[in-house]
Amino acid sequence: MSLYSYMAWRNIWRNPRRSLLTMGAIAFATVILIFMLSLQFGNYSTIIDSVVKMRTGHLQVQATGYQENRDIHLAVADPSQVAATLDRAPEVSGFTFRAHAFALVSSDNRSYGTVVTGISDRELTTSSLARTISEGRFLTEDEGAQALVGNILAKNLRVKPGDEVALLGQGLDGSVAATIVTVRGILSSGQDQFDRVSFYIPLPYFQELFGMGEAVHEIVVIAERLEDVAGLKQRLEEEVAGDTGRALRVLDWKELSPGLLEAITLDLMTGFLFYIVLIVVVAFSISNTFIMAIFERKKELGLMLALGSRPARLTGILFLEYGMLTTLGLAAGILIGCLVTLYFGAYGIQIPGMAEMARHYGVPERVFPQLSFLSVGIGSGLVVGISLCTSLIPVWKVRRLRPVPAMAEG
Predict the structure, then answer these.
(1) Coil, strand or helix at 27
(2) Pairing relationship of beta strands 176-187 and 146-150 according to DSSP bridges
(3) What one-character DSSP code corresponds to residue 351?
């Protein structure tokens, strides 16, 4: 240990209570930041996972232009070739096919326009749609003229499981698509927009009714992990969408649900406002400690200047002191923050009133923080930055000290 380091270490423990309080403030801020950031990131992963499994999937393969126009003619003519590629991809957890068409649905004297969606048996393993059934049961591909209806649409139509609903639309070839289906189940997702327009029928029956042949509009892909989405998208673009003759493209969840990304960004910004308030409070605490240390040692510092010590040397010793205090507090904060986050990441946090909402949205009843290098890096980086900024104030005061007045005041 050099002489300057020894002097800085000695100066820290000249007032152990004050030094421990300073390190405690730094450690506390670090723990809070790491835990809260991990909780936010874990919550975002849960929300994204629940939304993509309910609606869009992590990725979708579509015909070029379908996302913008929703034209029934913009279909994937041969989904089996894409399916073969997906079967070979280890990052794929599951995939399913969907087809959509606008139609008029009627019961007795009530009629509403909605989007009819054809779904396959793969929905049971790739989406959370089956978990939202509040009445009746899920349908299978071989049941033919059966339907699942959102609960708000069902109330508007005044139908329940077992009732019949007339459906009228236009097929891919321009023919009239007309049929009568029996309501098999009622969907209650807790999302009004979803429950107001949901109308599902078996995919083979949909393809027959609307003259689709084997074509579908969406190949919905679920990745093993959210982190795999970017790499999987690039691979599919090269192997599937790279064939310009098939006019296909790959969209990820950010492009499919831009509103979700905006909501997460807004929430993250709101969270950072809280973190800034926390950092400011901690900054005042650290700054007060540093300044008090300067006032108590003003006579000593003045004497050192009178004996020939340069201001740069004194400020170097002070920076070493503050660096040691910050390092010790930061190390303790990172250790405690990681342990606390790992504990709650394993057992979760039960939020009162979460159970009912979780059943509606298909999300876990517990919130699980997700420890990552990003949460640790951002949390500790903010603390180091604010500690460095607050240390500049006492250092600036030392640079302005004059030996005689300093010794007289001390």
Answers:
(1) helix
(2) parallel
(3) P
117 and 84 in one domain?
yes
Neighbours of 231 (CB within 10 A): 12
Determine how β-strand 349-350 pairs with β-strand 133-136. Answer: unpaired
Q: Which two tokens stand for residue 279?
A: 């950092």
Question: 65-112, pLDDT tens digit by residue?
Answer: 898 888 888 888 888 888 888 888 888 888 999 999 999 999 887 889
**What is the tens place of the pLDDT at every residue in 273-329?**
888 887 787 777 777 777 776 666 666 666 666 666 666 667 777 777 778 888 888
| Whole-number Å distance between alpha carbons of 118 and 219 | 12
DSSP-based three-state secondary structure for 70: coil
Whole-number Å distance between alpha carbons of 22 and 330 = 11
- H/E element, 183: strand 176-187
**DSSP single-letter state for residue 362:** T
Question: Which spans in 191-309 are helix H?
Answer: 192-197, 203-209, 229-239, 253-256, 258-296, 298-306
| Domain ranges, residue 267 | 3-51+260-409
Q: Is residue 57 part of a domain?
A: no
281 and 404 housed in the same domain: yes
Q: What's the chain's length in residues?
A: 410
**Is 179 found in the same domain as 81?**
yes
Asked whether residue 46 falls in the same domain as residue 72, the answer is: no
Three-state SS for 74?
coil
User: Model's pTM, two decimal places?
Assistant: 0.71
Residue whose structure tokens are 């919905």? 220
The string of pLDDT tens digits covering residues 42-70 is 888 777 777 777 778 889 999 988 988 88
CA–CA dist 47, 128 (Å, integer): 13
Q: Are residues 221 and 283 in the same domain?
A: no
Alpha-carbon Rg for the chain in angstroms: 31
Does 342 lie in the same domain as 222? no
For residues 366 and 349, is the Cβ–Cβ distance under 8 A?
A: yes
Residue 103 resides in a domain: yes
Q: Answer whether residue 59 is part of any domain.
A: no
Q: Which phi and psi angles does 301 have, rounded to 5°?
A: -65, -40
DSSP 52: I
Which neighbouring-strand residues pair with 367?
349
Number of domains in the chain: 2
Specify whether 229 is located in the same domain as 372.
no
